[in-house]
């Protein structure tokens, strides 16, 4: 087996802990690239995406995706979309990313938008 990068080790550790504690709640998954940030609420039981938002959305595009302000906007949008789909409780899956900066801004905005985690 190939040696895993530190990022992949963190991602596996986070995902394993979520599965142990999360139960049957959908997962709010975050991906951060150099330019954009993406968030989606995934129902693993059914294997489908319930809601999603990113800085690629048309009305967010005016803001640079690499800012905490844009990440907070994405967090609010994904919370609204999840509530429309009937999801209020999720588990936060930060992947291999540290809970800091844009990831933290997205999480706090999603909480303010009505998601519980």
TrEMBL record:
CDD domains from the UniProt entry: Ribosomal_L18_L5e
Keyword terms: Ribonucleoprotein, Ribosomal protein, RNA-binding, rRNA-binding
Gene Ontology cellular-component terms listed: ribosome
A Pfam family that the UniProt record links to this protein: Ribosomal_L18p
NCBIfam families named in the record: L18_bact
Quaternary structure and partners: Part of the 50S ribosomal subunit; part of the 5S rRNA/L5/L18/L25 subcomplex. Contacts the 5S and 23S rRNAs.
Family: Belongs to the universal ribosomal protein uL18 family.
Known function: This is one of the proteins that bind and probably mediate the attachment of the 5S RNA into the large ribosomal subunit, where it forms part of the central protuberance.
Name of the molecule in the record: Large ribosomal subunit protein uL18
This protein's encoding gene: rplR
């Amino acid at each position: 087996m190939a040696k895993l990068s530190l990022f992949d080790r963190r991602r596996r550790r986070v995902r394993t802990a979520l599965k142990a504690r999360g139960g049957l709640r959908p997962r709010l998954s975050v991906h951060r690239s150099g330019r954009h940030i993406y968030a989606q609420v995934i129902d693993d039981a059914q294997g489908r995406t319930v809601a999603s938002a990113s800085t690629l959305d048309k009305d967010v595009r005016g803001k640079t995706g690499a800012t905490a302000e844009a990440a907070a906007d994405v967090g609010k949008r994904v919370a609204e979309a999840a509530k429309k789909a009937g999801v209020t409780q999720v588990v936060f899956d930060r992947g291999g990313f540290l809970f800091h900066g844009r990831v933290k801004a997205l999480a706090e905005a999603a909480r303010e938008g009505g998601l519980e985690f």
